[in-house]
Design a protein that fits this description.
The complex is a heterodimer of chains A (about 300) and B (about 260). Chain A has about 300 residues and is of the alpha/beta class. Chain A contains 11 helices and 11 strands. Helices cover about 35% and strands about 20% of the residues of chain A. Chain B has about 260 residues and is mostly helical. In chain B, about 75% of the residues lie in helices and about 0% in strands. Chain B is globular, with a radius of gyration of 23 Å. The structure holds adenosine-5'-triphosphate (ATP) and magnesium ion.
Chain lengths: ~300, ~260
């Protein structure tokens, strides 16, 4: 019910742990913490200069639940998100400065517990839905970790959970955009990641489908709690899903606001329309506007 | 009439297609039948027809010279085709998968697409002699310089999202190429192979130009020497027919193998 403005987000209430995706305090220790300190990221531009995208980001995530990354277009959200899964090659040195620690250990490669989901769902058109979800188990990393006998039941369970239990043998072309995004989500969750990084996963969906997917995600995370970082530039989506909302300024990005929301999901319209939340929304919008980027934040109520 | 997206029915298309062929045949028949053109320059359609029958079955020897020629050419194309695929396909995939490998190999391959491959024939004769090796090598070279860039382009055209997604699911770079990129490029790779085979059919006469006793190219070459224009035309017609049949067969095979392909 509360929306606080403290930079730290340690406000998980008992109500939230019962219903929402925020798991109990003792479960938190099962999840690797993500610590970013002094992160600076620069990219070379075509005209030979350097573009500073992230400018001294310090951030700690140490409990399961959804952290929303909200910021204007092009501010460096994706750049920051990728770092939370360890260090992933992008062709340039990442990060330029600063350290990424996951589970207390410094990272120099992609972290094994982190899995990403994108807006572009990239399902293989030649494989069935079942085979698409089972695809990661063809990679040596997962082949080693998960016995073959377990793959089939895992895929069956997760497809049922995302509501595609009757679509095993269809091909991606036979599904809608929303259903395809469910396949991508299932392919990530089937790996039982402890860190799930989502880069505007529902950005390409129509409003109604997006709402369905938000509900589904909330539900799935109750069953499979993990540390979720979710990038969006939709303020409403941040308020519907986030246990914590981080607001980034325009490039070079800094964290300009850090809001904890401990209302369990699914969140009622009444809560979303309550004056406290409307105030939060106004404040976030103001922050985004302060960073002098106009017309880049999508508002949908 | 002027609507590029108009759908013609099958019958309509066939009627128009055979109609235009018919008009040409008729004009050919009239020109030769009425003696406007001398048979030594252009034999009449029926003369070509009877030449075909004579070549198709030689009752004295009890064999079919045309079949022998065809099988010989076919064998050369199959051998060269297998080599083109076995050698060209991996090179094309590697070039598509790695801009570095592409940068190294592309200057060695791409220029040959516009090189006069025919003028390499004398060099091949000097290097490899006048036997089968030279003929197969020529067909191979002519086709592989087209196959490699087409396979590379097929790989490169796979949307990057597939690559990123597999990498982020923990695939090694090579697993990513193999499980997320190559499968999606397969229909276009199949197209590349089909085109390469068509190219080999156009080069078969050149390959069999030097010292060939048997083969459709040899048939044409020898008939030309004896000014048997009707036989020359039979040879050309058979090559065109075989090229069309292989093309259609490969298209049909591709449709069966990759029914999921979305036409772009
Ligand atoms: N690998 C790269 N090389 C060079 N520049 C890059 C690279 N990745 C990102 N950038 C630049 O860094 C800036 C931030 O990119 P990023 O993708 O992190 O932003 P974003 O907030 O996710 O944007 P969007 O809302 O459009 O998804 C952009 O200006 C982009 O052009
Ligand atoms: Mg982005």
């Amino acid at each position: 019910m509360t929306a606080e403005a403290e930079p730290s987000a340690d406000t998980a209430s008992p109500a939230a742990s019962a219903e929402g995706a925020v798991a109990h305090a003792d479960a938190a220790s099962d999840f690797p913490s993500i610590e970013l300190s002094g992160i600076v990221q620069e990219y070379p531009t075509p005209d030979g200069k350097t573009l500073r995208v992230l400018d001294g980001v310090d951030l700690t995530l140490d409990r399961p639940g959804i952290t929303m990354l909200l910021g204007p277009s092009g501010c460096g959200k994706s750049t920051l998100l990728r770092m939370m899964g360890g260090v992933r090659p992008t062709g340039v040195q990442t990060p330029t400065k600063g350290t990424v620690r996951i589970g207390g250990k410094p990272c120099d490669g992609p972290h094994e517990d982190a899995v990403m989901v994108f807006q572009r769902y990239a399902n293989r058109p030649d494989l069935s839905i079942h085979e698409n979800v089972a695809l990661p188990f063809r990679f040596s990393m997962w082949k080693k970790r998960v016995p073959r006998s377990e793959v089939k039941t895992r895929v069956r369970d997760i497809l049922a959970a995302v509501g595609l239990g009757d679509k095993h043998d269809l091909r991606p072309a036979q599904l809608s955009g929303g259903q395809n995004q469910r396949v991508a989500l299932a392919r990530a969750l089937v790996l039982r990641p402890r860190i799930l990084l989502m880069d505007e996963p529902f950005g390409a969906l129509d409003a109604q489908t997006r709402e369905e997917m938000q509900l589904l995600l909330g539900k799935l995370l109750v069953e499979n709690p993990c540390v979720v970082v979710f990038v969006t530039h939709d303020v409403s989506e941040a308020l519907v899903l986030g246990d914590r909302v981080l607001v980034l300024s325009a490039s070079p990005a800094k964290i300009v606001d850090d809001i904890a929301l401990d209302e369990p999901r699914p969140r009622s319209t009444a809560w979303l329309m309550s004056s406290a939340i409307v105030d939060v929304k106004d404040r976030v919008l103001e922050r985004l506007h302060e960073s002098r980027t106009h017309g880049q934040v999508r508002l949908s109520f | 009439m002027w609507n590029p997206y108009q759908q013609l029915s099958g019958t309509q298309r066939r009627l128009l297609g055979f109609g235009s062929l018919g008009v040409v045949l008729l004009a050919w028949g009239l020109l030769t039948g009425l003696g406007v053109v001398r048979p030594a320059r252009l034999p009449a359609p029926w003369a070509v027809g009877s030449a075909f029958l004579r070549l198709a079955w030689d009752p004295e020897k009890g064999e079919s010279p045309l079949l022998d020629h065809t099988l010989m050419s076919l064998t050369r194309i199959v051998v060269a085709g297998v080599l083109v695929v076995v050698i060209g396909l991996p090179i094309g995939i590697l070039m598509g998968a790695s801009p570095r490998i592409n940068a190294v190999l592309s200057p060695l391959v791409d220029p040959f697409r516009s090189a006069p491959v025919v003028s390499l024939l004398p060099i091949l004769v000097i290097w490899l002699g006048i036997g089968e090796t030279m003929k197969v090598a020529f067909l191979f070279l002519g086709a592989v310089v087209f196959l490699i860039p087409m396979v590379r382009d097929a790989i490169v055209s796979v949307p990057e999202a597939h690559w990123i997604s597999a990498r982020d699911l923990g695939a090694t770079p090579w697993e990513t190429i193999w499980h997320a990129v190559v499968p999606i490029a397969k229909p276009r790779i199949a197209d590349a192979i089909t085109v390469s085979v068509s190219i080999m059919w156009t080069y078969i006469t050149v390959a069999e130009y030097v010292n060939a006793q048997v083969g459709l190219g040899a048939l044409i070459q020898n008939a030309r020497r004896f000014s048997a224009m009707d036989q020359v035309l039979v040879g050309i017609a058979v090559i065109i027919a075989l090229a069309l049949v292989t093309h259609a067969a490969m298209r049909a095979l591709k449709k069966r193998l990759y029914p999921w392909e979305v036409e772009v």
